[in-house]
Amino acid sequence: MKAQPTYPAKEVKVQTSSYSVTFWVAKRPGVEAFLKTMSEYFEIVIYTMGTREYAEMILATTGLQVYISRLFHRDHCVRLSETCITKDLSIVGTNFAKMVFIDDAVRNTKQHPQNSLLVSRFQGSMSDCWLSMISSFLLKLAECDDFRSVSRKFDLFLLGYDLPTERCVEGVKLPKEIKSKTENTRMTWRLVDDDSCLNEFGDEGITSSARGILSQAS
């Protein structure tokens, strides 16, 4: 965050030969415990629209790099137009059946909707509980033969149903009771539908959330 926040955060300056910018970095509640647990079941990869220097500085500042196996940044994004870029998971690997893409912006998930799990953007609230909520889901998901469709399976998890181990295709026929509940559940999610384009320095407002990619460890 470029302006000093009202909650505890650390000031970080990123400087390269072409620019210099100051950010305020705060850890999302539970992020270290979340990454430590997830690293036992998944390979954790960071994929950001920010620059390499920016991403490395954030990881070094938070001390979370120990849980991260690979880092992808703006240079690895796909350009859709002169002003817009997006993330392409094919650069991470080809086994999409075992890949979960966690992000807080809808625009970043359009290339791989079957693998995507949208979470609320972290705004600094120390009562934020997103990571603890999705942690239990991801542990259940790790038992599935095919993680897709991640969002549909998250619906079922929130409703207390067992997750199908095979691929759950969007639009698949579900029992009427479950279908109705999953549609209503979607309305309770606090999602960020932000189609604005990237600014010069990367994701504005980013903090050390669990944004990234989880692929099942071999």
Describe the structure concisely.
By secondary structure, the chain is α/β, with parallel strands linked by helices.
Shape: globular
Could you give a short account of the major beta sheet?
Answer: 5 strands, mixed
CATH superfamily: HAD superfamily/HAD-like
Instruction: Output the CATH topology.
Output: Rossmann fold
Describe the secondary structure blueprint for this structure:
Elements: E1 10-15, E2 20-25, H1 31-38, E3 42-47, H2 52-62, E4 70-72, E5 78-79, E6 85-86, E7 99-103, E8 116-118, H3 130-141, H4 150-158, H5 176-186, E9 212-216
Parallel strand pairs: 3-4, 7-8
Antiparallel strand pairs: 1-2, 3-9, 5-6, 7-9
How would you characterize the overall build of this protein?
The chain has 218 residues and is α/β, with parallel strands linked by helices. It has a single domain (10-216), classed as HAD superfamily/HAD-like (Rossmann fold, 3-Layer(aba) Sandwich), CATH 3.40.50. Helices cover 23% and strands 17% of the residues. The chain is built from 5 helices and 9 strands; from the N terminus they run ββαβαβββββαααβ. The chain has a 5-stranded mixed beta sheet. The protein has a two-stranded antiparallel ribbon with strand order 1-2. Mean pLDDT is 77; it is low at 176-213.
